[in-house]
Amino acid sequence: MKIQSPWPVKPFLVIATFAVGIALPQYIPQWYNWRIFEWATVPAVVDFQPRARAAEPLQEEAERLRPDTVSLKSNSSRIHDPTATMDHFYASLLKTERLQNGTVTRILHYGDSPTTADLITADVRGLIQQRFGDAGHGAYLIAKPWAWYGHRGLDVSASGWKMDPATLKGQKDGRYGLGGVSFIGQTGAQSEIKLKKPGHTKLTLSYFGQPGGGEVKIMAGDIEVATLNTDLPEPADAEETWPVPPEAQNFKIIVTRGAVRLFNVVFRKEGPGVVYDSIGLNGTWAGVLAVHINGQHWIEELKMARPDLVIINYGTNESGYRNYVETTYPKDVREIIRRVRAAVPESSVMIMSPMDRGAREAGGTIGTVTTLPKLISVQAKLAAENGCAFFNTFEAMGGPGTMGKWYMAEPRLVSADFIHPMPAGARIVGTLLYQALMDGYNSYKLKQLRRAVATAAPAATPTEARP
User: Fold this and answer.
1) pLDDT surpassing 70 at residue 450
2) What are the residues whose beta carbons fall under 8 Å from the beta carbon of 1, sequence distance 6 or more?
3) Which residues of 393-419 are buried (b: 16+ CB within 10 A; e: fewer)?
4) Which of 194, 188, 178, 195 is nearest to 141 (CA)?
5) Burial, 188: exposed, middle or buried (Cβ in 10 Å; 0-12, 13-18, 19+)?
6) Counting Cβ atoms within 10 Å, is residue 174 exposed (0-12), middle (13-18) or buried (19+)?
């Protein structure tokens, strides 16, 4: 006779297995990413507080869909600019907003791997052009030096090019153009750049001219835009600009004779508006702009670009090397600033810190790499000493441990290396930067208004004494 247990064995085993599945990942670091319950959330569940609702019925949903409309809530999210070095940029932006003489405001954003994929920069570009006008996409490389190189809104397919990024120091003369990559092509080398939307009216080709230089043809669809002879009497950095049909979306660059050395193209529209150049170098660090690239060459490239704001957004890769951060890094940053100031002394310069960089800690939690806060403090000091603005991305996005929180978010906001943001994470950082720029711009406009009112106010007349 089979004796039946008074306890429901199978349900008990299922519950026990589930409990083990919850508990083990909390204590085995290798299983940490497989946890399905956070014990830290228990107090919040026990002490439940209903979520506060917005004063206006649609406000909360509007903020969720358009975070760029939300005002800054803390000083850590603002640009530190005690010497008002950003005023040149803000003044240009004010002219653009007022539609003065078709003013175009140009921003050069130098960064590492996220910038290479136009993460963060694409979001800022979209937000700022939506408000002030779209004056064109800006600079784009001749071909893809890395498989993940790409900009939102356009793409390139190419063949026949010898590509030398400045990070690898493949060119002895140190000439890598504005975008940090040199492209050498023989007859037959070509690139096809496809724009997702029409509307650009000018194309600029940046190249290195030299004796015996070859010839390159530029096509807009079936229309020949120009044939450029890069044979110059003396070696020189150069660029040429041509009008293109505004309806054109497919462009070809073809080497038709000899060998040419190109750097990048620039797509522009009629102003007023903003051009936001995303200039990313994969695996880069401050020493690339300071040492690998020929100083006078980069100065000439910056002069031709004529930016109103230069953003230096490095530090993620440097944060893995404490000795470099404490010794050579400050010298490299000073040299970058010196070169920018030598090229465009009137332009605003802003150092933008890296995002948080996560690292596994004892017990499996995701913390912040130990060198990162030190590097950011060095950046802040260098900005203050050299009259640059400073934006602390690390603090603005949440400070230590943010990448751990982003990795555990649903959906995830950062990849498994705890470094590279997912598109949704990049959108957050891009929005934070845009908000900070607009906060500074609005403060500048208020300052100008007060100055104008003070200047226009008639001199007060002393009150006459009564008899």
Assistant:
1) yes
2) none
3) bbbbbbeeebbbebbeeeeebbeeebb
4) 178
5) exposed
6) middle
What are the two backbone dihedrals, phi and then psi, of residue 410, each rounded to the nearest 5 degrees?
A: -125, 110
Spatial neighbors of 114 by CB under 8 A, at least 6 apart, are: 120, 280, 355, 420, 421, 426
Determine the straight-line distance between the first and last CA of the chain, rounded to whole angstroms: 125
Mean pLDDT estimate for the chain: 88
Reported as a single tens digit per residue, the pLDDT across 185-225 is: 999 999 999 999 999 999 999 999 999 999 999 999 999 99
pLDDT at 261 over 60: yes
pLDDT tens for 9-23 read 666 676 767 666 666
Q: Which of 279, 7, 298 is nearest to 149 (CA)?
A: 279
Beta bridge mates, 350: 311, 389
Whole-model pTM: value is 0.83
Rounded CA-CA distance 373/324 in Å is 14
CATH code: domain 69-135+271-454 is: 3.40.50.1110
Q: What does the domain layout of the chain look like in residue ranges?
A: 69-135+271-454, 139-270
Higher pLDDT: 460 or 325? It is 325
Question: Any idea which residue has 């009216």 for tokens?
Answer: 201
Q: What letter represents residue 278's amino acid?
A: S
Record the tokens describing residue 356, joined without a space.
Answer: 């948080």
For residue 64, report the phi and psi dihedrals to the nearest 5 degrees: -65, -40
Class of the CATH domain delimited by 139-270: mainly beta
Contacts of 375 (CB under 8 A, 6+ apart): 315, 318, 319, 325, 329, 353, 354
Task: Report pLDDT for 381.
Answer: 98
Which H or E run contains 43? helix 42-46
Contact 279, 115 (CB under 8 A): yes
Contact (Cβ atoms closer than 8 angstroms) between residue 121 and residue 109? yes
